[in-house]
Amino acid sequence: MSKRIKCGWRRATITLVVAFACATGLWPAGAPRSSAQIAAPQRPPVATVNPRSASVAAATTEVLKETGEIRQLEVLRAVKSGAQSRAEIERMLVRNLDEQTTPAELHASELALKKLGLVPAGFAMRSFLIELLTEQVAGYYDPKTQEFYLADWIELDGQQPVIAHELTHALQDQHFNLRRFADWPKGDSDAELAAHALVEGDATLVMTFYVMRDLKRVAAMMKSMGAAGSATEKIERAPRVLRESLLFPYKQGMEWTSQVYRRGGWPLVSEAFKNLPQSTEQILHAEKYFARDAPVKINLPDIAGLLGKGWARLDYDVNGEWSYFQILDEYLRAEKESREAVAGWGGDRFALYENRAKRQVLLAQLTAWDTEQDAAEFFNAYLKRTERRYKDAAAVADTRASVPVETRRVWRTTGEGLIVMERQGARVCILEGVPEKADVRALLKRVMGTP
């Protein structure tokens, strides 16, 4: 699930207004892929020079010099910059989304989020995401063109912190080559999100140091956003999973980068671009990054053949600790309990299946935990989540006396098939949406790899 929000990441790193507010303490903690299409223009508009581009370019040299001093990275070359309108930035966001995500991937992402109950059944995610990012974006840096642009609806006097953030990305690119992230291998989105947290956390920490040099910069930033009518309507009514996933690289990324910085200064932060964080677990628990506590690689066999005619696997990826926290807490609404339940995460793999003809969806998950106790805690938390997620779920009696109720549960739901959970040692299997006529035992045997 962690891969769902990637618009603007692989192609261009973006600064969000609420991300800046989170970093500076001005946004309250916890504040409040789709078939819908946004058509890109049939032909590009005639190129024009934004009247604010000259002033942005003039500010670049001064801010780049100061940012390089803060980050302790030499400026290797000048950075081209300018200003863009909402329409231009929206076109960039749409283009990036289309380049990074195929319609099939977008369809699978939306199905997974809906199957987990993280977005409403009729939610048009693609259009909402474009509107949300267009509302929130304050600027972006494009590693492909090595240029950055600022939103022209925010006054320049208040944009210096955003410029510092974007120029940190430019310095990262000059020294560590951000373009290498453009072709991230499919199937490990949790590690991709962790790398994103490094890139944005680094830039957000530099931006924070830049602001702390002169606190009038914060006041100027907030004043200019208010004068421009910077709204938060979309971010406030966004599903929690979208809001929190967008903020994770900035907020948790900066907290993680701060711990790395305290341990070894900027040289150790720079070293992290060579030794990337491997999971969101390592971002949430920096000590696991320092210990190089690598995730367990999980293989989840394809079960389409056991489901019957018409079933196909659409997605195959890693959720990670951060996504499991969101999956649990969406229904538990008890942050401490949810965090404790996922704290022993060791690795996972999920697969999404669809039978289009029957309009059925199945989500298979296999997770590994550090200890059997950690697995039991997650099993119990997900059990509670399941009972709250599926209000009409009715328990199905297990005829095998050898299977204790604390390690295996089966529910029947109306219209969404069977829900099956089983724990074996330090591993937990979850199947949501099993067809009524499917052989549950055969499915569990295949997924768990038991004889």
What can be said about this structure in brief?
The chain is an alpha+beta fold.
Number of domains: 2
| Low-pLDDT residue intervals, each spanning 5 or more residues | 24-47
- Radius of gyration based on Cα positions: 23 Å
What share of the residues lie within helices?
40-55%
Distance between the termini: 30 Å
Q: What structural class do helix, strand and pairing data support?
A: alpha+beta
The best one-word shape is elongated
> What order do the SSEs take from the amino end to the carboxyl end, as H and E?
EHHEHHHEEHHHHHHHHEHHEEHEEEEH
Mean pLDDT: 87
Q: How many β strands by DSSP?
A: 11
Largest sheet: 7 strands, antiparallel
List keywords for this structure.
alpha+beta; Protein Transport Mog1p, Chain A; 7-stranded antiparallel β-sheet
What's the arrangement of secondary structure elements?
Elements: E1 13-16, H1 17-23, H2 53-71, E2 80-84, H3 86-100, H4 103-115, H5 125-136, E3 137-142, E4 147-151, H6 160-176, H7 189-212, H8 216-227, H9 233-237, H10 240-271, H11 280-284, H12 286-290, H13 304-307, E5 312-317, H14 320-332, H15 335-342, E6 345-355, E7 360-369, H16 372-389, E8 394-395, E9 408-412, E10 418-424, E11 427-434, H17 440-448
Parallel strand pairs: 2-4
Antiparallel strand pairs: 1-3, 3-4, 5-6, 6-7, 7-11, 8-9, 9-10, 10-11
